[in-house]
Amino acid sequence: MLPNLPEIIDGLPNISGWEEEVLSVVQRNEPVFLHRTNIRLEDVTAVFAIALHMHQPTIPAGANGELISNLQYMFEHPHIPDNHNATTFAYCYSRMADFIPELVANGCNPRIMLDYSGNLLWGLRQMGRGDILENLKRITTEATYQPYVEWLGTMWSHTVAPSTPIPDIKLHILAWQHHFAAIFGWEALARVKGFSPPEMHLPNHPDTLFQFVKALKECGYRWLLVQEHTVETLTGQPLQNKHLPHRLVARNSSGEEVSITALIKTQGSDTKLVAQMQPYYEAKTLSKQQVGNVLIPPIVSQIGDGENGGVMMNEFPSGFKQAWYEMQHQGGGTSGVVGVTGTEYLELIEAAGCTPHDYPTCQAINQHQIWQRVAPENSSPEAVTNAINEIKQTNHNFHMDGASWTNHISWVQGYDNVLTPLNQLSALFHEKIDPAIHSNSEDVSSKTITQQREYREALMHNLLLQTSCFRYWGQGAWTDYAREIYQRGEEVIQHKF
User: Fold this and answer.
1) For the chain, first and last CA: distance in Å?
2) Distance CA 370, CA 258 (A)
3) How far is CA 259 from CA 213, 223, 366, 375, 482, in A?
4) Any idea what DSSP says for residue 216?
5) pLDDT for the residue numbered 87
6) Distance between CA atoms of residues 399 and 211, nearest Å
7) Residue 198, helix vs strand vs coil
8) What pLDDT sits at residue 444?
């Protein structure tokens, strides 16, 4: 019997303590959508899938320096530029729970994928906006709406994977799964099979990518969303079949290999494309393609911020609804070009006879240059490091910082004042706490360590410091926030462990 998880424990979000139960739930293999879907592949020519990404960072900016949501800060400081949008943002976090029931009641067949950071979910509860969470529960837990809505997992604190310390990648993934289960329940968590990386940021260093994919699979994920230009074919070319699922191959410097299914998010102005339902209109130009022995509908996949920018705040609602009504009139919403969720699509094509080994393969961008120099049978950390250094000497554009939805922003260059403390806090966390956990791994007391307030507080500060916003928004107030979180985290770890 699984316990009912508390959402808040001692004033902190529930991000640890039930690792064994979480992993038992997320590793379930039964179909999620296959028995509920009203889509039949033989009736469909092409499909599209859209996701909405929602996030607000946690910052030490409460009245007395408390950790609060940036959304709360926006409400409390309405005269700072852009903060006047706080009310609209809050509505955007809730409105899909109004749109989906309305469309379903009117005979449409809508689909949406939702990606909410742990920071945002906690912040909504902190600031007394449980009404938003209750509204979202309706479309998450009620059987009526389950065919239409898919939640995507993500990193709890919106960290970008390439510059996240490797030991913390799985901690972020598990923290989000804990938190989500505490809010929406175990059955809802069991249905979360797709993953949305913050900033669509994919590691390209062989060892980081390997650990990222390995952690995703260990945490029950079947697929992830990948930005088109963050990957390449195994021969180093741009993708030729971006509207088909791919098998993302990750090989580490020791020659070990792991793979996971990837849905390719096409390039473009993300929010504008989603707001204007461009994936639907692009899908109308496509026709079925052969994968293995099966003819399947291609998929156009896209994600955009769910709240940010005038186009999402103002244009999206009418564009979203208009597209579903158009589909209803043209084929009942179940034939021709239709919307799907990612897991629904993969379950449908795999039930028709596709297997992940039939999908085109891809790898992280720039890896071909490494594997040209390092044969699998001769692979070693030293050989990979030497290859990377050789390439950097002849190709100044080559880097192992990963790639994201944009080419003009780096989450690494110029941010030593954040990355150095970030890595120091992570190292201190693992140095002080890991031995206690591992020494008790055969003992029930090991579980109690991750259930202790001290552990949860230390983990929370470690994860919060890795939030991408402390780099994305540039030097100044945001890097000051990071410094404050580092100091508090260091104090917790040094004095309580």
Assistant:
1) 32
2) 17
3) 7, 10, 17, 18, 34
4) H
5) 94
6) 19
7) helix
8) 47
Torsion angles phi and psi, residue 471, rounded to 5: -115, -40
**Residues 141, 104: contact at Cβ < 8 Å?**
no
Within the chain, which residues score under 70 in pLDDT? 268-270, 402-416, 440-447, 472-474
DSSP structure class, residue 159: B
CB 331 within 8 Å of CB 42: no
pTM for the model stands at: 0.95
H and E: helices and strands count for the chain: 21, 17
Alpha-carbon distances of 435 from 421, 428, 430, 446, 461, rounded to whole Å = 22, 12, 8, 10, 19
**Average pLDDT of the chain to the nearest whole number:** 92
For residue 470, the model assigns a pLDDT of 85
CA distance 234 to 363: 6
Give dist(CA 256, CA 353) in Å, integer: 28
Q: How far is it, in rounded angstroms, from Cα 478 to Cα 474? A: 7
Give the start-to-end residue ranges of the domains of the chain: 25-362, 366-394, 416-496
3-class secondary structure, 387: helix
Beta pairing, strands 44-54 & 299-305: parallel
DSSP H or E segment with residue 481: helix 477-496
CB 489 within 8 A of CB 432: no
Residue 415 has a pLDDT of 58
Could you give the CA distance from residue 338 to residue 106 in angstroms, rounded to a whole number? 17
Amino acid symbol at 404? S
Cβ atoms of 156 and 179 closer than 8 Å: yes
Asked: is 25-362 a CATH 3.20.110.20 domain? The reply is: yes
Instruction: Give pLDDT, residue 408.
Output: 52
Q: Name the residue among 129, 51, 479 with its Cα closest to residue 306.
A: 51
185: number of Cβ within 10 Å: 16
Q: Tens of pLDDT along 389-420?
A: 999 999 888 887 766 655 555 545 555 677 88
Distance CA 319, CA 157 (A): 31
**Cα–Cα distance for residue pair 244/260, rounded to 1 Å:** 14
> What are the backbone angles phi and psi of residue 284, rounded to the nearest 5°?
-65, -20
Among residues 434, 384, 404, 414, which one has the least CA distance to residue 168?
434
| The two structure tokens encoding residue 78 | 């309405």
Is 467:57 a contact under the CB 8 Å cutoff? yes
